[in-house]
Amino acid sequence: MMSTFRPAAKMSEKMLRCLPPAAALVATFVTTTSARAEPTTIKNPGDHPDYVFEAEPHGLVGFAGPFRDNGNAHLGAGFRGTVVIVGNGFVKTINNSVGISFGADLYGDNTLFLPVAMQWNFWLSRHWSVFGEPGLGLALKSFEAKDHPFHPILMAGGRYHFSDNVALTVRIGYPAISVGVSFLL
Known about the structure:
Layout: H1 2-37, E1 53-62, E2 74-86, E3 96-107, E4 111-123, E5 128-141, E6 144-161, E7 166-174, E8 176-184
Antiparallel strand pairs: 1-2, 1-8, 2-3, 3-4, 4-5, 5-6, 6-7, 7-8
C-alpha cells in the first residue's frame, strides 16, 4: 500500500514545484500583453466593471490534496460564486477589489469539494484582470467525510474580459486547475 502512495506524493510534489514558475509565466504574459495591447488601468482605483456577484461555471483537474492518489488526476466540473465585499480593495491607490468566493466541485471519483476563499482582484486593463485566492475547502468522498476532510486552497488566476460582464477565467494552484466562464452580475 505504501508503494502506491509514494508515486502520488512524488507526482504532487513535482506539480507543486512547477506551479510558481507557471504562475510567473502567466503573470508575465498577461502584464506584457496587456501593456502592449491596451492602456493600463491598474493605477485608476475603481476603474473596473461595477458588479456585486460573479458566477463561474468551470471544468477542472484535481491533482493534490483530496485528489492525490495513485498518481491519477481527477476530472470534474463545478461552480464558483464570488460576492464582492470591497469595490475598491485593500490598496486604495490601485485598481483592486476583494470578494468572498464559494462553490461546489464534483469530481469523477465521487468527491464533492466545497471551497471558500478570499478573492483579491487586480484590474490591469479593460480586458485583463488577475487574482489570488487563499482559503479552505471541505472534501467529501462519496458524500461522506474522508480521513482529512479540510484542505488549504491557494490559487492564482486570470481573466480575459470579452466584455464588462463576460470573461474567460483560468485558475491554477493547490489543489486543482480550472477553466471557466465568468459572468459579472
